[in-house]
Amino acid sequence: MITASWKTESTRRFPLLLLLFLLFGLCTSASAAVVSGRASVWSYAREDTVNHVVVVPQLSATIHQLGREGLSFQTTLRGFYDFRDGESSDEQVRIQRAVFIYAPRKSRWEVRAGQQWLTEGVGRGSIAGLWARYKASSKLSLTAYGGPRLSRSISLVTGNEDNGIAAGVHARTKIGRHRLGLSYTYTGKEGDILYHGIGVDGVGKFHSKLNLRARLHMNLEQSTIETAQLVAAWKAHQKVDVTAELRRQTPRIFEDSYFIRFLEYASTDFVRAAMRWTFYKTLYMKPGASVLFADDELLYKVRLAFGVPIVEFGFTHWLSVSEGAMDGFYGQAQYRIGRCGQVFGGFDFSEGSNSNVREDVNSHATYLGARYNITNAINVSGRVEHIEDFERSEDIRGLFSLSARFSTLHGSGR
Fold this sequence. Notes:
The protein has about 425 residues and is mainly beta. It is built from two helices and 23 strands.
């Protein structure tokens, strides 16, 4: 029992200890390297039943030419502090990315080692392991990866659970004006298969004015389609742009038979279409509609908007759950001040039947904000909202952010 407990605890802390060791090694060898990145802080303040303030600082940095040309290190650290009535109720520090990248300029190889995000076709998520890509030619590349599977980030305060291992391959090729990808991924834990799937992704221009993007991801363990998507962008006329999307989505869940049954009910079919028509000088019209098929219900939303580049007004109507129907009206405006500033604002009002229980409800929201670039590298933004929801409770919220780019290379951060 003691052995099992020690094994679980060490498994949870191993990725963290490895990353801390790598960071320690950087401190002794990065004195001559170039460091660049972005530091930012995002804050959310709310005043209703309690004075609630959330502060989220984030640091993203890249150390270039780490010891030799082509070797770099990238990391993203994020904090989270939750204050209620002046007292901190939750504090977290997380590593979202910490990876060494070796990509020589004239080499066909690129290798990454450490904590990293995966966007390799059907392979999604985060691992603490190895990733390698080989460019066989200008039209063909092969990628392979593997390592312990992680949550989206590693906590420096609490433990990190053992999520098993993930591995996969991804091949990309280019045929004419079309790009095609074929991928396979596997996730297992203690000898059991949690998930393995295969995916096909394609992007291409099938006409001079028609772009299509498609993907088909299958869950081989359940013999089901996980994601089937087709997105189209059509330049029908010089002043008419049309977009459309057809998608079937199934949540990826690694659990027992109860959740396997849940997958059948969680699957959704989604259809969306929209158009933008500039019919007089800069005056445009934007009709659009979306339909969601879920749990034997057909939910839809339609929108019609008119506007010019700085102001837009629109009407919406949608069918919500339990036979509820809502109508909404919104407006939004933005105005640029010189080359460095921008002010914006708007409102959103809706009324109708939220469900067959609430037959007469309404809600509204108004907001006002501004963005300003203090320098080319430093910018600030703020937004204040006044919200009244279906329960008639009023809420005032504030969103504020400050971000700055930096570099030890002279002049690059100005």
